[in-house]
# Entry
Amino acid sequence: MHPRRTRKMDSVIEHLGAFSFELSERGRVAVRREATPVYLEQGREVLSEGDPCETILFVERGEVRVFASSSAGREISLYRLKSGDACVLTMSCALASRLYPATARVVQPTVGLALPASLFRTLFSTELALQQFVAERFFSCLTDTITLVTQVTFEPVSSRLSRFLLRQASCEEPTIDLTHAAIASELGTVREVVTRTLEFYASRGWVSIGRGRVRVEDPGALRALLRVDAGDS
# Structure
């Protein structure tokens, strides 16, 4: 990743204040000297599979999707980086001197801090607050990954799709602006399966389908389907 500096050039320490850990004065001085405030535009690929992890991105605001992909072009989302996050895979690769095993792409314009991997390793060895932050992120990511593997392995697509629609929609905004292909990438399946399932939902009046969007019309029916699928598993 080779980020460019933010236009406003706010102080690095002000950016660092968006995160849940507090460094020692020595650590803050090192960050002020070596870290770079960054702005990443939507659609930008931050890291690709096989890249060296030369910098660690700490997201102040915005959103970055981290996903795995197959040789056939199928994708599945692993997790998303939002305000106050840093990429677990990037941190682990930097600590272990490994290449990045996934892809990270900006889905909403993102502001944050880029720390050189060498600085991150130094801070990790000396700053207890950063160690705790990394441990918490590892635990959270591991828990989410176990949930993801369990769902993909044992749950039907209908359950995963229903849960995704309910999570993305809300009472105030029940419309989800995603294509069928994008939803399939989130769920680790193929577009045809998502389209077929959504068309079945639409025939029951549970959702309505438009070009590049899905509107949840009957969230209660989707919750009921989840309960039925859970009882059948």
Q: What stands out?
A: Residues 2-10 have pLDDT under 50 and may be disordered. The two ends are 43 Å apart (CA to CA).
